Amino acid sequence: MFTKMKKAKNTEKKKRRKAAAEIREAMGDEAPPKPVPHTIESLRPADITTVDADDEEVAKDTQLDDFAAYFNCETPPKVLVTTNKKSSLGTRKFVDELVNVIPNSEYSKRGKVDMKCLVKQSVDAGFTDIIVVNEDMKKPNSIIVCHLPEGPTATFRLTSVVLKKQLKRHGNATTHRPEVILNNFSTRLGHSIGRMMGSLFHYDPQFRGRNCVTFHNQRDFIFFRRHRYIFKNNVKVGLQELGPRFTLKLRRVQKGTFDTTTGEYEWYYNHKQMDVNRRTFFL
Length: 283
Prior knowledge:
By secondary structure, this protein is α+β, with helices and mostly antiparallel strands. It contains seven helices and eleven strands. The protein has helices spanning 2-27, 56-62, 68-71, 89-101, 115-124, 188-198, 271-274; strands at 79-83, 105-107, 129-136, 139-147, 153-162, 179-183, 211-218, 221-231, 237-241, 245-254, 265-268. Strands 1, 2, 3, 4, 5, 6, 7, 8, 9, 10 and 11 form an eleven-stranded mixed sheet that branches. Strand 3 and strand 4 (139-147) form a beta hairpin. The longest helix is centred in the N-terminal third of the chain and has 26 residues, at 2-27. The radius of gyration is 22 Å and the shape is globular. The mean pLDDT is 87.
């Protein structure tokens, strides 16, 4: 009974859509605009921390923040990528692809070095960032990004990891420095996280390679994709995914470098307080 009612409802909806399309086509330019559908994003409540593109205050802040040297093209990035102390084969495969994505990165075996010593050694070696991939049940489950020498440090939950070989009809990446696309980071916090992600890649991309990496924020989930593009004509563009793909969810942002004992947190995810309203987003 329920299936029949649902089928009849869908049929009626299709008829209404078809009739509306015919009326719109007949009216031409005088047709009324299409109604905007109600989604979680469109019903999102106003946020006082939302950043405008021409905000002078934000522009002044970005000139003095921890990533200003990178975005002023003064300090080229040099990234150290490592894992937890006892990493599995699956995590090391993911790290290998991560190193391949970031051309200016190096992998270093963690060994028994704790995080504080690792930060000090990396600063002395001239690294600008550290990426630590942690695992649970022999699967990568979180990423720590620490900007050197004075922070900040962000911790993300890592899910939906798909390696390059698991993608159908994937391409093979070249050694060209990729272009970086940061999409839909609209709040002050999101703006900072976007700048942190962008600072991992070289500020002078090699356009000849036609490679681009994308960090797309949707409902506080950051989707990572890597593609090669080709212009078929003046209108159409073809994309080929190069891999890997994964999803990040911000858990906490800490001032300074990694310090779980005396570190001061700028932002901390608390699901009991923050998950009350599904329409509230923070990035």
